[in-house]
Amino acid sequence: MQNANTNTTSGSVAANVNQAPSNLFPTAVYPKGIQQLMEAAEKQDISKNFLGLTILSASSTAIGNSYNVDEIIRVAPIIYAGLVGNSSSGKSPAINLAMGQVYHQEKLNQDDYAARLQEYHLELAEWKQLPARERGPHNEPPKPKFAEIILEDITSEGLIDSLANNHKSLVFEQDELIGIVTGLQTRIEKRLITTWDNKDIKYKTRSRGHEFVNKPFLNILGGIQPSVLPNFSQGNRNQNGFIYRFLFANYDEPQYNTIKKIDSILLDNYNSIIDRLMSLDVEVDSLNRRTPQVLHLNLEASTYYQTWRTSFKKSFTPGDSAEESIVKKLENYSLRFALILQLLYWAAQEEGKDEIGMRAVKGAIQLTEHYKLNAMVVQQTIANGKQKVQHPYKEEILDMLKQNIRYKEIEAAFGVSSKTIAKIKMGG
After folding, report:
1. pTM listed for this prediction
2. C-alpha–C-alpha distance, residues 148 and 145, integer Å
3. The domain containing residue 408 runs over which residues?
4. Final residue before a domain boundary, out of 242, 274, 301
C-alpha cells in the first residue's frame, strides 16, 4: 500500500493536468460560480473537502437518469459519498448548503403529492357512490404515487417501491452512515451493490408478484466518524466491494469564521445551476423503461482520457488487493465525474452539452486522483484501527443490557445479531 499522503500521479498524462493530486478538493474543476461559493463557505468554517463532495452528490442527484456517458463502458453518474470527520467537524452544514435546492424540490414534490392525494380521495368517494354495476372492476381511480427524492430509511420492499416511483433519482441521506451500514441485511447490501451500477432490478412480492425496476438511480450521502471506520469494512464488505464503491472526503481544516454570511448572489447562482440540472427530463418509453440520453467524449478528450486510463489502471501496489479494488472503482467513477462536470459547465452557461470535452475530462482526472488519495487515507485508518474495533452502538447496547432488555428488542433496535450482543456483553 502506498503512503496515503504522497502526492503521486498515474503517469505523464496525469502530471499534465493543472495540478498534482492533493488531499484537498481541487475546486478549479468546478464552474467559476461554484468555486466562488466554496471559497466563501470555507471562510464560514465549512470544510472544502466536505463541500466539494456534497456538491458532486447534489449535482448527481439533479442529473439522475437524464444522461449517461459512454466511453468503452456506459455508466450513470451515481455517487456513494461518505464525509469522514468527528461529530463537530461540520458535515451537516456542508450537506445542507449543497443539497438545499434538492430539499426544495422534495418539498415541491410533497405539496404536489398532497394535492393529487386530496383529488384522489374526492374521486374515490364519488366512485363509491356509484351503483355496483356502474363501477366496473377496473374503474376505481388510481391512487397517486409519491416520487420522493430524499430517502431516510432503507427496507427491502420500501427501497424497491421508491426506486420504481421516481424515474430520475433518489438519495439516501443520513447524518451518520455507520449505524445504517453495519445493520444492513445482506439482501439489501447486495441490492445497493447492484444499484451502484444502475443495473435493472427484478423482485417478487406476495401481493403484486414479479416486478422490475429499470435503471434504478440511488445516491448515498452521509457522515462517518474516523473512530468507527473499521466497522465500515467489517463482515464481507471488503470482499464484495461495497466499501470500495464509496468516495470519501476526509476533513480538512477550513478558515475560521472570517465572514459572517455567504453572499446571497453566490447562493442564488449555485441554486440556479442545480435547478437547471433538475430541469433535465428523463425519457420513458411505452414500456415504462427509462432511456437516458447518452454523451460521448469528443475525439481529443477521448484520446487524452484513454492515455491516462491506461496508466491509472496500473497505479496500485502489486499484491495490495484493497488498493487494486479502489483503482478499479475509481476508473469507473472517472467517467461519472466527466459527465457531471460537463453538465455543470452547461448549467452554469460556460459550455454546451452535446459532447464531453477536454476541460471536463481533465477535471475528472483530478477528482479521480484526489479521491484515490482520500481512499488510501481511509484504508490506513481502517488498518490502524483493526485491533481496536468498537461497535458504534456499544454504549447504548450495554445500557440496554443493564436494564435487562431482551436480546430480541436490542437486535431490532440496532440491527445486530445475538452473537454480537453477547460479545459486547463479555467485553468484546
Report:
1. 0.83
2. 9
3. 394-425
4. 301
